[in-house]
Q: What sequence folds into this?
């Protein structure tokens, strides 16, 4: 039986075993998929053990430090210096970043395009990746950030300009508890709003990262938060006529990308949608 797993600390109630077990089942295979809760101090001592697996996923806090384990990185992992999926082969161990794939596939599934007028709330962690991908796709990007994240936002803009000197990108600073119209350039209109911050996550489900007015005229909303399955931001966007999606799709689609890497697997859209729905029912 092949062996896979997820590596992180602390892992808590990760959905990765359920998602990957379901994907392997679609392939007609039963595998041993375990959670490996390993502290940062233990990581390098576990490299020999990790080499015995067929592949594994990585979450915080190991996405950068696990690079030392890899013989080679794919383009996405190189760009973001972050690895969340590894294929352990006979001759080499290759690190990948499937968060990128999960995000871009989610935007496509939503029916939206990054090559449009995009408002991104938050630029740390996954937000940095979302900002850079949007700019590389040709989007006209506005990054909304807290004043306390000014240095972080400016660093993301510098990264974008280094990769794409003609990128259209600007920063808007959030002046209150949530992003408001007054924080944005006068008359600014957006096709897609992406939320990369944790506001609205369980248990504080009665909050959203922007005021309802910010959603006026927005056609699509992608909220990276996946618990609850319908955030207040997504619900408000739908009430205003926008199409919205929350983060469970991204979580499942990055797992699908891992299976494409490990086994060159392919799945029917309806099967993936069922897994997304099943995982939402678990939270």
A:
């Amino acid at each position: 039986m092949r062996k896979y797993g997820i590596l992180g600390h602390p892992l808590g109630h990760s959905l990765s075993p359920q998602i990957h077990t379901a994907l392997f089942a679609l392939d007609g295979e039963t595998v041993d998929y375990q959670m490996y809760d390993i502290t940062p101090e233990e990581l390098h001592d576990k490299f020999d053990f990790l080499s015995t697996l067929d592949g594994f996923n990585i979450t915080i806090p190991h996405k950068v430090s696990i690079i030392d384990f890899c013989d080679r990185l794919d383009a996405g992992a190189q760009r973001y210096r972050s690895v969340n999926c590894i294929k352990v082969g006979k001759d080499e161990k290759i690190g990948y970043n499937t968060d990128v794939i999960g995000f871009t596939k989610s935007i496509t599934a939503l029916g939206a395009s990054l090559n449009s007028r995009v408002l991104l709330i938050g630029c740390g962690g996954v937000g940095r990746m979302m900002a850079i991908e949007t700019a590389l796709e040709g989007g006209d990007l506005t990054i909304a950030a807290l004043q306390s994240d000014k240095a972080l936002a400016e660093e993301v803009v510098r990264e974008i300009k280094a990769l794409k000197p003609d990128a259209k990108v600007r920063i808007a600073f959030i002046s209150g508890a949530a992003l408001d119209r007054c924080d944005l350039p006068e008359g600014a209109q957006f096709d897609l709003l992406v939320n990369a911050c944790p506001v609205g996550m369980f248990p504080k489900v009665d909050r959203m990262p922007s005021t309802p007015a910010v959603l006026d005229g927005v056609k699509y909303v992608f909220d990276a938060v996946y618990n609850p399955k319908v955030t207040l931001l997504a619900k408000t966007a739908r009430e205003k006529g926008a199409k919205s999606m929350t983060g469970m799709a991204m979580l499942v689609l990055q797992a699908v990308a891992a299976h494409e890497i490990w086994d060159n697997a392919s799945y029917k859209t309806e099967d993936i949608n069922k897994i997304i729905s099943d995982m939402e029912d678990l939270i």
